Amino acid sequence: MRLTAVAIGQRMPSWVTQGWCEYARRFSRGLSLELREIPAIKRSHNADIESVRRRECEALLSAVPDNNYVIALDERGRQWTSAELSSQMQAWMQNGRDVAFLVGGPDGFSDESLAQADHRWSLGPLTLPHPLVRIVLAEQLYRAWTITQNHPYHRD
């Protein structure tokens, strides 16, 4: 199974790239974690934010591999505990469908893009900077996978 994060933004600080790569390399051969970066649209002082948001979301959705279950990381989404995320991961693995996680730009998602997602997931009530979201996403997916494997990484 393939897990793909499709995220707005390129040229992340080295600590973001290193953090992402550290967690991505830990997955077994049967499960991979990949990242697809989409360039952010330049925002001028007088930019039409709704237009920018819509264009970025169109680019996000077009970068999702075919037949993926799509999850938008959205502050208004459902929150999962690590155990619940692990159960979700088991269901995804049994379903046989790859999963794509959408990480929007600084202005969030358009309503149309949220409507196209199969699910909305909130990482919690805190506002996180987008580079950090990538690392939190990778770590939480790794943690959920280790729970499915009875690996001692996660401790209740």
Can you describe what's shown?
- Helix 3 links the parallel strand 3 and strand 4 (99-103).
- The two termini are 26 Å apart.
- Helix 1 (14-25) packs parallel to helix 5 (130-148) and helix 3 (82-95) packs across helix 5.
- This protein has helices spanning 14-25, 49-62, 82-95, 111-116, 130-148, and strands spanning 2-8, 32-38, 69-79, 99-103, 119-122.
- With 156 residues, the protein is α/β, with parallel strands linked by helices.
- Strands 2-1-4-3-5 form a five-stranded parallel sheet.
- The protein has one domain: 3-Layer(aba) Sandwich (Alpha/beta knot).
Keywords:
alpha/beta, Alpha/beta knot, 156 residues, 22% strand
Radius of gyration: 15 Å
Helix/strand order: EHEHEHEHEH
Q: Which overall shape is indicated by the principal axes computed on the Cα atoms?
A: globular
Question: How many structural domains does the protein architecture include?
Answer: 1
Q: Please state the structural category.
A: alpha/beta
pLDDT < 50 stretches:
none
Outline of this structure?
By secondary structure, the chain is α/β, with parallel strands linked by helices.
How do the strands and helices of this protein lay out in sequence?
Layout: E1 2-8, H1 14-25, E2 32-38, H2 49-62, E3 69-79, H3 82-95, E4 99-103, H4 111-116, E5 119-122, H5 130-148
Parallel strand pairs: 1-2, 1-4, 3-4, 3-5
